[in-house]
């Protein structure tokens, strides 16, 4: 049976370019008749034109049948869901039979049946005649229909098996989704052209292979014959300036239209260049995915992907791990993205048996491997956006890869070859890795990587540019460490950047679970939520990770120096003339002045209005213009010094094809006053994450993370008890500054009349994917951090109330002495928490903070601090200091797999309000805040979002610090300075009613 052969197909026509032709064509998408059988051996009689399919179902083409009620999807990452015994496949082999009729006019003759993608194989009959068989799910195939087409009614029949020998070549980390999932056409086009358009020395050259004559009216090129090269004055194509020229090739029987972009990719002195300039790839890995349609992605969704990428400063895509729908590449040409086009080849699961029998090194598979490469290169060769060919992903090493590379070099010497799976880089032009640590990337940047055993290969690889084809695993909450990678990419010319893993969460829409992941369809073997690891949620809502990436990828940098800002152009291929620059000064988050900046197209130093000493700006002289009359400028009448921040933003001055005028491209903030306290080196007393070393700061921007952290929780606060008078005792309660306490336990029972629970120390967080897959959770559970016991040792009244406790997990001598000191303050209640660890705390802990519960009516939070989104020690680069407001619901980031989320960082004060009395919490100077309608334990227990049911309370965490996020779900954990290690410390909060 063909389906169990090594050969890739039979009866197929030679591959050719995807072209837009004026030859007649019939769109065969639409409703087909469909029957699913559990095994492959059903009679092929259905292929007869007269077969009665009235008992069959309707099924849309393109689609995947498991997403239309026939069978179910299944997810595995590396593991094959069947035994490794190529070319054999299981007897349980879901088989989809398809039929459709179509009518041809009487003057129609000849044509090709073209399938853009069928998973995993197709056997095709026309009017009962077998046309052929093909594999290669994400590659086009054409059959000659001419001999069997008849005027009037024709009947097309296709048999698709979920499993075929080719499935061994398609072990990508994604849902197994069979079906005719891309377009089907009958076309009379047969043309093939290969346009060569390069740009060197300031001019373009143009030629093409094929037949016919090429014209580019805009350039005055008319009837250029094949094989003739001409030189032209043109504007080059780049992802930043995607200049395309409409061209037409006229052949005897048809004309094809192309959009030509002139550009040259080269490698010089180990640096990747485009049009002679260094090319820094700010990329993402994109699988084709839609939560309802799987890999049958609607055109509008493809377009949305490109627009979203452009709007988030992404400039490159790796089409992991197969050629995308051809229209996606048209969009990349048009809107501007650099593309690594990857072949549909992955044999990852052979790694689980020590790569024994790896198809990439087995001559029996040679033809199939080469066939895939040819079909990709031939289809996509005319796209200016495609700058590299990738041999595939995770297919080990082997002779078939070498043959694919050799053929490609000869067919298209203009594009470098990429492949990551062979560390020797024997067949590639670039050195590519995945998930290398910062330290390793830095070493490679310096050219100081570990040598290969073979000196010749080592010398070759050492001369190559480096890229990370996957890094910063965006699973769940995260990724952390983005800024530090970018800093390295920008520092070392050899580093050509990389591609974050990955663009989208592959959560499938589910009526009960909201989004399904591996195991939700009862798969016996699966990899759970590892398929949900994207920068956008399944519905394409940008996650906090994408917002951070946008910040890190900004093409404009701001360096504040006193009364000026230096504006640095980080575009590779354009100046700043398309941008407008806006500034705003805010005092405690309230705008007091706004202005525009006149920035030269080349960037440079621009004097700022609005900084101290600059006349003409209200409040620049330190006067309070907040209008609240308390002199601190914070607009809240709270006393204390106002914080004055300058925010500068670069926005599009006019509409671009991918975003409207006013779209923000880059921004930065600078604290004008009071000056941020100097960092405490090493976080002397604090468990708080030591001040990040300057490295993470995106060069030149006033990184709010380091800026605020510097003044943040690492600083000691003397544990002095402020406040006047001793506590009052009434009705069996101790009363201090609006707080009512149980005299026996020291427990706070009411705060300004509000029923509360807590605050009490908490070290736990609902594990994030990086904590779980990276193994930290195991350590934390072993320590018992999720089951702390709290013992009250004394309750002392005097100058306020002091409750001394010991907090410790069972079965260990580790513990923490925790003293809660409550004092009356002018207008409320102060809390000082003193923490003294006992025993050897060798491991980082999830968080250090207190948790309290408020009535459910506290539904809104307004705060001054970083926002509007979530931020953890090594994430939240997209957040800025300001005044923000959100409901408790809005504070949640809806990660598909529930986990710690929604933490607001560097909060100076927050007001929790609802129907009745509100509560204001003030930090000294800052704290971290989460508020949710479920407990940490509920959050941890949940497996899908609908498991989270609002309870009767709002649970509020007031944190001193959290452990970093990192990317340990696949890759390195947090950089060491983001580890949270318990140490003797003190933190202070103030409560008052509002
Ligand atoms: C890497 C794969 O290439 C990618 O498809 C995806 O599975 C990713 O991991 C994890 O989400 S391979 C891994 C062994 C580094």
TrEMBL record:
- List, for all copies, the residue spans of the domain called Beta galactosidase small chain/: 734-992
Query: Which regions are flagged for Acidic residues bias?
Result: 622-640
- Pfam families the record matches: Bgal_small_N (PF02929), Glyco_hydro_2_C (PF02836), Glyco_hydro_2_N (PF02837), LacZ_4 (PF16353)
CC annotations in GO: beta-galactosidase complex
In the record, what terms sit under GO molecular function?
A: beta-galactosidase activity; carbohydrate binding
The record's family statement is: Belongs to the glycosyl hydrolase 2 family.
Q: What is this protein identified as?
A: Beta-galactosidase
Q: Which organism is it from?
A: Nonomuraea cavernae
